[in-house]
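Journal club side-thread
Mid-discussion, someone asked how the predicted structure for our own chain would compare to the paper's figures. Pasting it here so we can look after the session.
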Amino acid sequence: MTHDPTRTRERLAWIILLLSFITCVGLAIGFPLGVRQFVHTARLKQDVLLEPQQGTPRLQRRGRGPVVALVGPTWDVPPGTVVTTDESARSLLTIYAPGTEPIPVATIQIYGGTSMTLVAARSPRFGASPLPHEVILEVPRGRVRIAVTPAYGRSTRVELHTPHMTAVLNEGSFETRVREGESELTVRSGEAQVTTLDGEEATLVSSQRALAQSGPESLMILSAERNLVVNGDFTAPLTEGWEVYHKDVQQEPPGAVTTETFGGRRVARFRRAGQGHAEVGIRQQVNYDVRDFSSLTLHLNVMVLGQSLPGCGSLGSECPIIVRIDYKDIEGTDRTWYHGFYSVDKAPQDLLYPWDEQIPLRTWYSFEGDLIEEFEVPPARIKTIWIYASGWSFDAMVTEVELLAQE
Protein backbone atom coordinates (compact mmCIF):
# COMPACT_ATOMS: atom_id res chain seq x y z
CA MET A 1 0.00 0.00 0.00
CA THR A 2 1.40 3.37 -0.97
CA HIS A 3 1.32 6.29 1.45
CA ASP A 4 -0.95 9.14 0.33
CA PRO A 5 0.41 12.41 1.76
CA THR A 6 -2.71 14.27 0.64
CA ARG A 7 -5.02 12.11 2.76
CA THR A 8 -2.66 12.50 5.73
CA ARG A 9 -2.77 16.25 5.43
CA GLU A 10 -6.58 16.17 5.19
CA ARG A 11 -6.86 14.06 8.37
CA LEU A 12 -4.46 16.38 10.19
CA ALA A 13 -6.45 19.40 9.03
CA TRP A 14 -9.70 17.84 10.29
CA ILE A 15 -8.09 16.98 13.62
CA ILE A 16 -6.81 20.54 14.03
CA LEU A 17 -10.22 21.91 13.04
CA LEU A 18 -12.06 19.68 15.52
CA LEU A 19 -9.61 20.51 18.32
CA SER A 20 -9.99 24.20 17.53
CA PHE A 21 -13.77 23.86 17.60
CA ILE A 22 -13.71 21.99 20.93
CA THR A 23 -11.31 24.55 22.38
CA CYS A 24 -13.50 27.39 21.17
CA VAL A 25 -16.64 25.81 22.64
CA GLY A 26 -14.77 25.07 25.88
CA LEU A 27 -13.62 28.66 26.17
CA ALA A 28 -17.05 29.99 25.25
CA ILE A 29 -18.65 27.92 28.00
CA GLY A 30 -15.84 27.50 30.54
CA PHE A 31 -14.59 31.08 30.69
CA PRO A 32 -17.98 32.56 31.67
CA LEU A 33 -18.51 29.70 34.13
CA GLY A 34 -15.08 30.31 35.62
CA VAL A 35 -15.75 34.03 35.92
CA ARG A 36 -19.16 33.28 37.44
CA GLN A 37 -17.59 30.89 39.94
CA PHE A 38 -14.98 33.46 40.90
CA VAL A 39 -17.58 36.21 41.31
CA HIS A 40 -19.71 33.92 43.49
CA THR A 41 -16.93 32.57 45.73
CA ALA A 42 -14.31 35.33 46.05
CA ARG A 43 -14.13 36.63 49.63
CA LEU A 44 -12.91 39.65 51.56
CA LYS A 45 -11.83 39.56 55.18
CA GLN A 46 -14.05 41.32 57.69
CA ASP A 47 -12.85 43.95 60.14
CA VAL A 48 -12.68 42.63 63.71
CA LEU A 49 -12.54 44.73 66.89
CA LEU A 50 -11.68 43.16 70.25
CA GLU A 51 -12.30 45.26 73.36
CA PRO A 52 -11.59 44.47 77.02
CA GLN A 53 -14.58 45.18 79.25
CA GLN A 54 -13.51 43.86 82.61
CA GLY A 55 -10.27 42.47 84.00
CA THR A 56 -7.48 41.53 81.59
CA PRO A 57 -8.46 39.22 78.72
CA ARG A 58 -5.65 37.56 76.77
CA LEU A 59 -5.19 36.75 73.11
CA GLN A 60 -2.90 34.68 70.94
CA ARG A 61 -2.91 35.84 67.33
CA ARG A 62 -3.28 33.11 64.69
CA GLY A 63 -3.16 30.51 67.48
CA ARG A 64 0.60 30.62 67.78
CA GLY A 65 3.25 32.85 69.24
CA PRO A 66 3.06 34.78 72.51
CA VAL A 67 -0.09 35.13 74.59
CA VAL A 68 -0.54 38.85 75.27
CA ALA A 69 -2.68 40.81 77.71
CA LEU A 70 -5.43 42.92 76.15
CA VAL A 71 -5.18 46.32 77.85
CA GLY A 72 -7.04 48.31 75.20
CA PRO A 73 -9.11 47.86 72.03
CA THR A 74 -7.37 46.26 69.05
CA TRP A 75 -8.24 45.76 65.38
CA ASP A 76 -5.39 43.28 64.95
CA VAL A 77 -7.48 40.11 65.29
CA PRO A 78 -6.58 37.80 62.37
CA PRO A 79 -8.27 34.45 61.74
CA GLY A 80 -7.05 31.80 64.15
CA THR A 81 -6.82 34.22 67.07
CA VAL A 82 -7.58 32.63 70.46
CA VAL A 83 -9.21 34.83 73.14
CA THR A 84 -9.17 33.64 76.76
CA THR A 85 -10.68 35.15 79.88
CA ASP A 86 -10.26 34.17 83.50
CA GLU A 87 -13.22 34.30 85.89
CA SER A 88 -12.76 38.05 86.50
CA ALA A 89 -12.37 39.12 82.86
CA ARG A 90 -14.80 39.84 80.01
CA SER A 91 -14.33 41.07 76.47
CA LEU A 92 -16.40 42.05 73.43
CA LEU A 93 -15.66 40.94 69.87
CA THR A 94 -17.40 42.91 67.11
CA ILE A 95 -17.15 41.79 63.48
CA TYR A 96 -17.93 44.27 60.71
CA ALA A 97 -18.81 43.70 57.07
CA PRO A 98 -16.45 45.41 54.62
CA GLY A 99 -18.07 48.47 53.08
CA THR A 100 -18.44 52.21 53.22
CA GLU A 101 -19.91 52.14 56.73
CA PRO A 102 -18.97 49.95 59.72
CA ILE A 103 -22.01 47.65 60.01
CA PRO A 104 -21.65 44.72 62.45
CA VAL A 105 -22.55 41.23 61.28
CA ALA A 106 -21.82 39.59 64.65
CA THR A 107 -21.35 40.89 68.18
CA ILE A 108 -19.87 38.34 70.57
CA GLN A 109 -19.87 38.85 74.34
CA ILE A 110 -17.15 36.69 75.88
CA TYR A 111 -17.79 36.00 79.56
CA GLY A 112 -15.35 34.94 82.28
CA GLY A 113 -13.70 31.52 82.25
CA THR A 114 -13.92 31.20 78.46
CA SER A 115 -11.69 30.21 75.57
CA MET A 116 -12.80 31.11 72.03
CA THR A 117 -11.12 30.92 68.64
CA LEU A 118 -12.08 33.13 65.70
CA VAL A 119 -11.59 30.63 62.88
CA ALA A 120 -12.81 32.80 59.99
CA ALA A 121 -14.56 36.11 59.30
CA ARG A 122 -15.24 36.80 55.64
CA SER A 123 -17.73 38.37 53.23
CA PRO A 124 -18.34 38.03 49.47
CA ARG A 125 -16.12 40.30 47.38
CA PHE A 126 -18.80 41.00 44.76
CA GLY A 127 -22.39 42.08 45.18
CA ALA A 128 -23.58 39.42 42.70
CA SER A 129 -22.49 36.60 45.01
CA PRO A 130 -25.37 34.68 46.64
CA LEU A 131 -23.26 33.73 49.64
CA PRO A 132 -23.88 35.23 53.10
CA HIS A 133 -21.45 36.98 55.40
CA GLU A 134 -19.73 34.17 57.27
CA VAL A 135 -18.19 33.88 60.73
CA ILE A 136 -16.78 30.64 62.16
CA LEU A 137 -16.12 30.27 65.90
CA GLU A 138 -14.81 27.54 68.16
CA VAL A 139 -15.68 27.53 71.87
CA PRO A 140 -13.98 24.63 73.73
CA ARG A 141 -15.02 25.94 77.15
CA GLY A 142 -16.91 28.78 78.82
CA ARG A 143 -19.78 30.99 77.77
CA VAL A 144 -20.43 33.41 74.92
CA ARG A 145 -23.47 35.34 73.74
CA ILE A 146 -23.78 36.02 70.02
CA ALA A 147 -25.92 38.59 68.20
CA VAL A 148 -26.16 37.90 64.45
CA THR A 149 -27.28 40.68 62.12
CA PRO A 150 -27.48 41.19 58.33
CA ALA A 151 -25.49 43.91 56.58
CA TYR A 152 -25.78 45.64 53.20
CA GLY A 153 -28.86 43.60 52.31
CA ARG A 154 -27.02 40.30 52.79
CA SER A 155 -27.73 37.69 55.46
CA THR A 156 -25.13 36.51 57.98
CA ARG A 157 -24.26 32.92 58.86
CA VAL A 158 -22.37 32.11 62.05
CA GLU A 159 -20.99 28.59 62.39
CA LEU A 160 -20.32 27.64 66.00
CA HIS A 161 -18.24 24.61 67.00
CA THR A 162 -18.06 23.15 70.51
CA PRO A 163 -16.65 19.78 71.65
CA HIS A 164 -20.16 18.29 71.43
CA MET A 165 -22.00 20.02 68.58
CA THR A 166 -21.91 22.24 65.54
CA ALA A 167 -24.54 24.97 65.25
CA VAL A 168 -25.44 27.23 62.35
CA LEU A 169 -26.87 30.50 63.62
CA ASN A 170 -29.02 32.75 61.49
CA GLU A 171 -30.14 36.29 62.35
CA GLY A 172 -30.99 36.54 66.04
CA SER A 173 -29.56 36.29 69.55
CA PHE A 174 -27.94 33.14 70.93
CA GLU A 175 -26.02 31.94 73.96
CA THR A 176 -23.78 28.91 74.38
CA ARG A 177 -22.31 27.40 77.55
CA VAL A 178 -19.66 24.71 77.30
CA ARG A 179 -19.02 22.65 80.41
CA GLU A 180 -17.11 19.44 80.96
CA GLY A 181 -19.02 16.71 79.16
CA GLU A 182 -21.76 18.86 77.63
CA SER A 183 -22.59 21.91 75.51
CA GLU A 184 -25.74 24.00 75.73
CA LEU A 185 -27.13 26.36 73.09
CA THR A 186 -30.03 28.73 73.84
CA VAL A 187 -31.94 30.61 71.16
CA ARG A 188 -33.20 33.90 72.58
CA SER A 189 -34.50 34.97 69.17
CA GLY A 190 -34.03 33.64 65.65
CA GLU A 191 -33.29 30.12 64.49
CA ALA A 192 -30.38 27.67 64.74
CA GLN A 193 -29.56 24.28 63.20
CA VAL A 194 -27.72 21.94 65.57
CA THR A 195 -25.77 18.78 64.69
CA THR A 196 -24.07 16.55 67.25
CA LEU A 197 -20.83 14.64 66.67
CA ASP A 198 -22.93 11.50 66.09
CA GLY A 199 -25.01 13.17 63.39
CA GLU A 200 -28.19 13.94 65.35
CA GLU A 201 -29.84 17.07 63.97
CA ALA A 202 -32.40 19.54 65.27
CA THR A 203 -33.73 22.99 64.41
CA LEU A 204 -34.19 25.37 67.32
CA VAL A 205 -36.44 28.43 67.36
CA SER A 206 -36.89 31.25 69.86
CA SER A 207 -37.10 30.23 73.53
CA GLN A 208 -35.63 26.78 72.92
CA ARG A 209 -32.30 25.32 73.98
CA ALA A 210 -30.33 22.25 73.02
CA LEU A 211 -28.19 20.19 75.38
CA ALA A 212 -25.58 17.98 73.69
CA GLN A 213 -23.46 15.46 75.56
CA SER A 214 -20.89 12.85 74.63
CA GLY A 215 -22.22 9.52 73.42
CA PRO A 216 -25.10 8.29 71.23
CA GLU A 217 -28.58 9.86 71.41
CA SER A 218 -27.10 12.72 73.34
CA LEU A 219 -29.20 15.63 72.02
CA MET A 220 -32.04 16.99 74.15
CA ILE A 221 -34.33 19.87 73.16
CA LEU A 222 -35.59 21.83 76.17
CA SER A 223 -37.45 25.04 76.90
CA ALA A 224 -35.33 28.09 77.60
CA GLU A 225 -35.82 30.28 80.65
CA ARG A 226 -39.09 32.20 80.63
CA ASN A 227 -38.64 35.84 79.65
CA LEU A 228 -40.98 38.02 81.70
CA VAL A 229 -40.30 41.14 79.59
CA VAL A 230 -42.38 41.79 76.46
CA ASN A 231 -40.74 43.37 73.39
CA GLY A 232 -37.35 43.67 75.08
CA ASP A 233 -35.60 43.57 71.70
CA PHE A 234 -37.75 46.47 70.44
CA THR A 235 -38.60 44.77 67.15
CA ALA A 236 -42.26 45.70 67.68
CA PRO A 237 -43.49 49.29 68.15
CA LEU A 238 -42.60 50.78 71.52
CA THR A 239 -46.26 50.89 72.47
CA GLU A 240 -46.26 47.08 72.61
CA GLY A 241 -45.40 46.32 76.21
CA TRP A 242 -43.88 49.70 77.11
CA GLU A 243 -45.14 53.09 78.21
CA VAL A 244 -43.10 56.26 77.65
CA TYR A 245 -43.06 58.80 80.48
CA HIS A 246 -41.43 62.11 81.44
CA LYS A 247 -40.65 63.32 84.93
CA ASP A 248 -39.12 66.33 86.77
CA VAL A 249 -38.49 68.42 83.66
CA GLN A 250 -36.91 71.63 84.97
CA GLN A 251 -36.45 73.17 81.54
CA GLU A 252 -37.56 72.26 78.01
CA PRO A 253 -37.00 70.06 76.07
CA PRO A 254 -38.19 67.02 78.03
CA GLY A 255 -36.14 64.46 76.09
CA ALA A 256 -37.37 61.57 73.94
CA VAL A 257 -37.32 57.80 73.66
CA THR A 258 -37.42 56.30 70.17
CA THR A 259 -36.81 52.90 68.61
CA GLU A 260 -34.42 52.58 65.70
CA THR A 261 -31.95 50.26 64.02
CA PHE A 262 -28.39 50.84 65.17
CA GLY A 263 -25.61 48.67 63.80
CA GLY A 264 -28.15 46.13 62.59
CA ARG A 265 -29.87 45.82 66.00
CA ARG A 266 -33.19 47.26 67.14
CA VAL A 267 -32.68 49.55 70.13
CA ALA A 268 -34.50 51.97 72.39
CA ARG A 269 -32.63 55.29 72.31
CA PHE A 270 -32.87 57.95 75.03
CA ARG A 271 -31.86 61.47 73.95
CA ARG A 272 -31.94 64.99 75.28
CA ALA A 273 -29.95 68.16 74.60
CA GLY A 274 -30.76 70.73 77.26
CA GLN A 275 -30.06 72.44 80.54
CA GLY A 276 -31.43 71.55 83.93
CA HIS A 277 -32.65 68.19 85.16
CA ALA A 278 -35.07 65.96 83.26
CA GLU A 279 -35.99 62.30 83.32
CA VAL A 280 -37.37 60.38 80.34
CA GLY A 281 -37.94 56.67 80.21
CA ILE A 282 -40.05 53.64 79.51
CA ARG A 283 -41.76 51.27 81.93
CA GLN A 284 -43.50 47.93 81.72
CA GLN A 285 -45.97 46.36 84.11
CA VAL A 286 -44.74 42.80 84.71
CA ASN A 287 -46.93 41.74 87.67
CA TYR A 288 -45.61 38.18 87.87
CA ASP A 289 -45.38 35.88 90.88
CA VAL A 290 -41.78 34.57 90.98
CA ARG A 291 -41.80 32.57 94.22
CA ASP A 292 -41.61 29.24 92.37
CA PHE A 293 -38.54 30.19 90.35
CA SER A 294 -35.05 29.11 91.39
CA SER A 295 -33.31 31.85 89.40
CA LEU A 296 -34.24 35.31 88.16
CA THR A 297 -31.72 36.97 85.87
CA LEU A 298 -31.79 40.47 84.40
CA HIS A 299 -29.94 40.85 81.12
CA LEU A 300 -29.59 43.85 78.85
CA ASN A 301 -27.11 45.48 76.49
CA VAL A 302 -26.43 49.18 77.02
CA MET A 303 -24.37 51.79 75.21
CA VAL A 304 -23.69 55.38 76.28
CA LEU A 305 -23.03 57.62 73.27
CA GLY A 306 -22.69 60.84 75.24
CA GLN A 307 -23.52 62.65 78.49
CA SER A 308 -23.01 66.23 79.68
CA LEU A 309 -22.88 65.59 83.43
CA PRO A 310 -19.82 63.78 84.79
CA GLY A 311 -20.49 60.44 86.45
CA CYS A 312 -24.11 60.26 87.56
CA GLY A 313 -24.34 63.91 88.57
CA SER A 314 -23.56 65.50 91.91
CA LEU A 315 -25.88 63.19 93.86
CA GLY A 316 -25.15 59.98 91.94
CA SER A 317 -28.72 59.65 90.62
CA GLU A 318 -28.52 61.28 87.17
CA CYS A 319 -27.11 58.49 85.02
CA PRO A 320 -27.59 58.35 81.23
CA ILE A 321 -29.22 54.92 81.75
CA ILE A 322 -30.81 53.55 84.92
CA VAL A 323 -32.75 50.31 85.36
CA ARG A 324 -35.28 50.21 88.18
CA ILE A 325 -37.33 47.23 89.32
CA ASP A 326 -40.25 47.55 91.72
CA TYR A 327 -41.07 44.32 93.54
CA LYS A 328 -42.85 42.92 96.57
CA ASP A 329 -40.69 40.69 98.78
CA ILE A 330 -41.72 37.45 100.47
CA GLU A 331 -42.52 39.39 103.65
CA GLY A 332 -45.05 41.56 101.81
CA THR A 333 -42.92 44.74 101.73
CA ASP A 334 -42.74 46.89 98.58
CA ARG A 335 -39.10 47.43 97.55
CA THR A 336 -37.14 49.04 94.70
CA TRP A 337 -33.87 47.94 93.09
CA TYR A 338 -31.66 50.19 90.92
CA HIS A 339 -28.67 49.82 88.62
CA GLY A 340 -27.21 52.80 86.76
CA PHE A 341 -24.67 53.10 83.93
CA TYR A 342 -22.39 56.02 83.07
CA SER A 343 -19.24 56.52 80.99
CA VAL A 344 -17.75 59.96 81.77
CA ASP A 345 -15.57 60.04 84.90
CA LYS A 346 -17.27 61.58 87.91
CA ALA A 347 -16.12 64.90 89.39
CA PRO A 348 -14.07 64.55 92.61
CA GLN A 349 -16.78 66.14 94.77
CA ASP A 350 -19.68 64.16 93.28
CA LEU A 351 -21.31 61.14 94.90
CA LEU A 352 -21.92 57.70 93.49
CA TYR A 353 -24.31 55.02 94.67
CA PRO A 354 -23.06 51.44 95.05
CA TRP A 355 -25.34 50.57 92.14
CA ASP A 356 -23.71 53.08 89.75
CA GLU A 357 -21.43 51.32 87.24
CA GLN A 358 -18.97 52.92 84.84
CA ILE A 359 -18.87 51.36 81.36
CA PRO A 360 -16.83 52.15 78.23
CA LEU A 361 -18.09 55.02 76.08
CA ARG A 362 -19.60 54.14 72.68
CA THR A 363 -19.27 50.40 73.27
CA TRP A 364 -21.97 47.82 73.81
CA TYR A 365 -21.86 46.58 77.40
CA SER A 366 -23.66 43.40 78.42
CA PHE A 367 -25.09 43.49 81.95
CA GLU A 368 -26.31 40.41 83.73
CA GLY A 369 -27.37 40.16 87.35
CA ASP A 370 -28.90 37.44 89.51
CA LEU A 371 -31.75 39.38 91.10
CA ILE A 372 -32.48 36.81 93.78
CA GLU A 373 -28.96 37.39 95.08
CA GLU A 374 -28.99 41.15 94.53
CA PHE A 375 -32.35 41.93 96.12
CA GLU A 376 -32.28 42.68 99.86
CA VAL A 377 -35.04 40.14 100.53
CA PRO A 378 -36.11 37.40 98.07
CA PRO A 379 -38.88 38.61 95.75
CA ALA A 380 -42.43 37.29 95.70
CA ARG A 381 -43.76 39.38 92.79
CA ILE A 382 -42.05 41.51 90.15
CA LYS A 383 -44.28 44.55 89.68
CA THR A 384 -42.69 47.01 87.23
CA ILE A 385 -39.46 47.41 85.27
CA TRP A 386 -38.31 50.93 84.42
CA ILE A 387 -35.53 51.98 82.05
CA TYR A 388 -34.79 55.68 81.98
CA ALA A 389 -32.25 58.42 81.38
CA SER A 390 -31.70 61.17 83.89
CA GLY A 391 -29.61 64.34 83.80
CA TRP A 392 -29.08 67.29 81.49
CA SER A 393 -27.91 66.20 78.02
CA PHE A 394 -27.60 62.50 77.29
CA ASP A 395 -27.65 60.00 74.45
CA ALA A 396 -27.83 56.30 75.34
CA MET A 397 -29.33 53.06 74.05
CA VAL A 398 -30.50 49.69 75.35
CA THR A 399 -31.48 46.43 73.68
CA GLU A 400 -32.03 42.75 74.52
CA VAL A 401 -33.81 43.57 77.79
CA GLU A 402 -34.64 40.22 79.38
CA LEU A 403 -35.90 39.13 82.78
CA LEU A 404 -35.22 35.41 82.64
CA ALA A 405 -36.92 33.13 85.16
CA GLN A 406 -36.22 29.42 85.57
CA GLU A 407 -38.04 26.93 87.75
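Post-session note: Helices lie at 5-41, 371-374.
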